[in-house]
Amino acid sequence: MLKHRNAAELRRMRRNRTNTVNPFLTMILKMRANTRGVEEGYHLRMTKPAVAVARAQFTPENSAPATPPAAFRDFTQPWLDLNDKAVLVTGGTGSFGKHFLKTAVERYKPRRVIVYSRDELKQSDMQLEFPMERYPFIRYFIGDVRDRDRLDLALRDVDYVVHAAALKQVPAAEYNPFECIRTNVFGAENLVYAALRRNVKKVIALSTDKAANPVNLYGASKLASDKIFVAANNLAGADGTRFAVVRYGNVFGSRGSVVPFFRKLAAEGADSLPITDPRMTRFWITLTQGVNFVLSSMEMMRGGEIYVPKIASTTVTDLATLISPKLKHRIVGIRPGEKLHETMIPADDSHWTVDMQDRYVILASFATAAREAYLARGAVPVPEGFSYSSDTNPETLDARGLQTLLQMAYA
Fold first, then answer.
1. Confidence of residue 334 (pLDDT cuts 50, 70, 90)
2. Residue 128: which residues within 8 A CB-CB, separation 6 or more?
3. 42 pLDDT more than 50
4. Domains parsed from the chain with CATH numbers
5. pLDDT of res. 329
6. At residue 40, what are phi and psi to the nearest 5 degrees?
């Protein structure tokens, strides 16, 4: 009897759905929509410019609009084939280098992968994680990007180079400026000369949002490095080594991220989390996204580009609240050399920037043919005066989006 009564009620609910909004059905629809959004990616609070990348979501009449879900950009396309290729990663024992190596051995069968770094202890630890018996194609080279001769030896018969070596800590760079310049600027120069000498096919360098309109030495040194790699295409000639740059924001899961710092304080029983400024915003990307972005950018590069991914941003206070909701926030003030908001594309670069589906590309001023090639692939020039900053980013992570991204980063 109960079964028939429930069936009758269900038929009556279905008939009424065309005339009225049933609260129970509205709740179910919202729950399904939110679940679908988490499965597809991270939720975004989006303004009109970002609606184009959102997937349509049904919202019942008279109900509150739900947060629109956006497709999670994994940056896997176009696909770069590393099978039977030799790849060298400078700074290969860092967070990015380790994840790049993990990705390379899982997806490809490369001829050789060379981990180039100056830390023998980290190399020893990586050899335990990636033993020679199982991965005989991995090589570990002790070396410094300051040493051009060592780079020249390491790049023999190498097809691709990913340049991840850098001094990245802002306070350390301010206190040790000569060391920062030797690694970030002279190291870039050394790599260019060694790659040209060894006829490497492609070199792609990792940059930072701090290189755009820099206010600290680290950012200024990376801007100089970016300029070196872009201009290196002029030295290579028409058929020589191609050089390009990728520029992205803060990385979830990296050693330098604020996330492990906040988690450590919470685990140690701190009574508050230090916040530099409650208005501060940052771009965020996972290590997996970063590695995919480098690989796909290397596949499409023609030489002289600076690639910028379309990623979400959030306030530092929202991040701190998510990591430890019960802890208070203690305002400590902005550190020397720190920005309130980060910019990845300054307005002055809008003349050379094109918009692709999942990324922006800042083209070299001398690369007229490359610009035409990108436009032929569907790229669209950005409006004059366009800038891409964390505070005006149309894609903003809410609490649910942050939680999803953190789960993906620390899975």
1. confident
2. none
3. no
4. 86-257+283-311+349-409 (3.40.50.720)
5. 93
6. -80, -25
Q: How far is CA 163 from the centre of its chain?
A: 15
Residues 67-102 pLDDT 10s: 333 446 899 999 999 999 999 999 999 999 999 999
Alpha carbon separation from 242 to 222, 302, 376 (Å, rounded): 19, 7, 20
Asked if 305 contacts 245 with a C-beta cutoff of 8 angstroms, the reply is yes
> Among 44, 49, 91, which residue's Cα sits nearest to residue 66?
44
For 281-318, how does the pLDDT look when each residue is reduced to its tens digit (9 = 90+)?
999 999 999 999 999 999 999 999 999 999 999 999 99
Cβ atoms 186, 116 nearer than 8 A: no
Query: What DSSP letter does each residue of 234-282 carry, written as one string?
Result: HHH-TTS-EEEEE---EEETSTT-HHHHHHHHHHTT-SEEEES-TT-EE
The answer to whether 317 touches 101, Cβ cutoff 8 Å, is no
Helix axes 316-323, 258-267, angle to 10 degrees: 40
Which one has a higher pLDDT value, 96 or 404? 96
Which residue is catalytic, options 85, 98, 210, 222?
210
Tokens found for residue 208:
């930072």
Range 13-21 average pLDDT: 44
Cα distance between residue 361 and residue 247, in whole Å: 10
State both tokens at 138: 């991995």
CA–CA dist 373, 379 (Å, integer): 9
| Cβ neighbourhood burial of 325 (10 Å; 0-12, 13-18, 19+) | exposed
210 belongs to the catalytic site: yes
pLDDT of residue 264: 87
End-to-end Cα spacing for the chain: 48
Q: Which residue has the tokens 């894609």?
A: 395
Whether the pTM exceeds 0.90: the reply is no
Sheet containing 281-286: which strands, arranged edge to edge? 44-46, 395-397, 313-315, 281-286, 250-252
Q: Which of 33-42, 146-155, 165-174, 343-352 has the lowest mean pLDDT?
A: 33-42
